[in-house]
Design a protein that fits this description.
This protein has 231 residues and is mainly α. It contains ten helices and no strands.
Length: 231
């Protein structure tokens, strides 16, 4: 983002830049940042839940919180500029409704991206630990249905190919293998391996490596750019 590279002069430079934008440009910026807020807020929610199982998701949750705070702050400045320079309140009327739509769009697309890139093993662990579902040996009709649908989804050629590409481009998988695990380790697995210090170091290391996944980064950027083209 423009103002993230400005360092100590962020506030002054951003205010000057926003003052030069016309109402249409400010409205588009406001919509784009509402989308970012919806996406980041959903990321905090999802990764916050997954963090209860996987230490590596602490990193994703922290970065999502940072993105959320930055997007809220920037959107507020856009609203202040629109009111100060053009007498337009972007928090009222149709602009308020538009803000809600873009928030929901950001949340929906972030949820879809999570479903697409979440591994089957991670899904099974989340279902077991967070929802109390036993998908390995389903005892209820609901568990059996969820197991069947999830297996159909994750074994489909498109999703399997996407995960294969993502795994190939993700350094976290190499780190997980080097640590002796077959999948993203849980808190208990890391603790049994080397105690709390190992949990902290390995969890943060896997999380940072996961954030360097070229496939997910490219997909996020493509989705955001495509959405902005629709504004």
């Amino acid at each position: 983002m423009f103002w993230e590279t400005l360092g100590g002069n962020e506030k002054t430079a951003l205010d000057v830049w926003l003052a030069k934008q016309d109402p249409a440009a400010l409205k588009k910026l406001h919509q784009a940042h509402s989308f970012k807020i919806g996406s980041a807020m959903t990321g905090v929610f999802i990764n916050g839940f997954l963090m209860c199982i996987f230490p590596s998701n602490v990193v994703s949750t922290t970065l999502n919180v940072r993105d959320l705070v930055a997007a809220i702050r920037s959107r507020r400045k856009i609203e202040e500029a629109a009111k100060a320079y053009h007498g337009r309140d972007l928090q009222e009327g149709c602009d308020r409704a538009s803000k809600k739509r873009h928030l929901l769009a950001g949340a929906a697309l972030r949820s879809a991206m999570t479903v697409l890139f979440l591994g089957h093993d991670d899904f099974l662990a989340a279902a077991s630990n967070l929802a109390g579902l036993d998908l390995a040996l389903p005892a209820s009709a609901a568990e059996a249905l969820i197991k069947e649908v999830s297996e159909l989804f994750y074994t489909s050629s498109g999703i399997r190919g996407l995960h294969h590409l993502s795994d190939h481009l993700c350094p976290a998988n190499k780190l997980i293998d080097a640590l002796g695990f077959k999948q993203n380790p849980t808190w208990d697995q890391l603790f049994l391996e080397g105690g709390m210090s190992f949990v902290a170091v390995a969890g943060v290391g896997i999380g940072l490596a996961g954030e360097a996944n070229v496939a997910t980064r490219a997909a996020d950027a493509a989705v955001e750019n495509a959405y902005q083209l629709t504004l």
